Amino acid sequence: MTQPEPGTVVVTDAGSGRYTQRVTTAGHEFLADEPESVGGADAGPTPYDLLLSALGTCTSMTLRMYADRKGIPLTRTTVRLRHDRIHARDCERCETEVGLISRITREISLEGDLDDAQRARLLEIADKCPVHRTLSHEIAIETHAV
Questions:
Q1: Which pairs with CB-CB distance under 8 Å and at least 24 residues apart come from 89-94?
Q2: What keywords sit in the KW lines (predicted)?
Q3: In 14-144, where do the E strands start and end?
């Protein structure tokens, strides 16, 4: 298979497991799968692992870029994420009032000789990472058969 152009991701059956998928980007290739407990081969991260990875890596990279640009002594960032589903009525800040909604919990650990103002500003910047903005706004997904 030829490499897709930058900005395009191609996902195909890997042919090695019931749910195992080969993910190809412009410069990388890896497997995604489901755990054995649901019939997969556990040959790679799950789709939700990949979604959380996108948010976590974007958060950490955005914080690094900001800290470098502003001369903030951030030495390490660790982002821990979890996805679950909760009843809409249990969400204080959600527009949806009925049924279940997805919730992503993100914990950010900031290391370095940071004062309280720098820590607070970095947490504000975390919400400005492009993937966070994408997930927080309306998303239109268009599907076409080829």
A1: none
A2: Oxidoreductase, Peroxidase
A3: 21-24, 29-32, 74-87, 100-112
> What's the rounded Cα separation, in Å, for the pair 11 and 20?
10
SS3 16: coil
Assigned token pair, 12: 């195909």
Q: Provide the 8-state DSSP code for 24.
A: E
Two structure tokens written together for 9: 């991701």
Q: Is the pTM of this model over 0.85?
A: yes
Integer Cα distance of 65 and 112 in angstroms: 15
- Digit-coded pLDDT (tens) for 64-102: 999 999 999 999 999 999 999 776 666 666 666 667 778
116-126 and 47-70 helices cross at what angle (nearest 10)? Answer: 140
Position 25: which residue type?
T
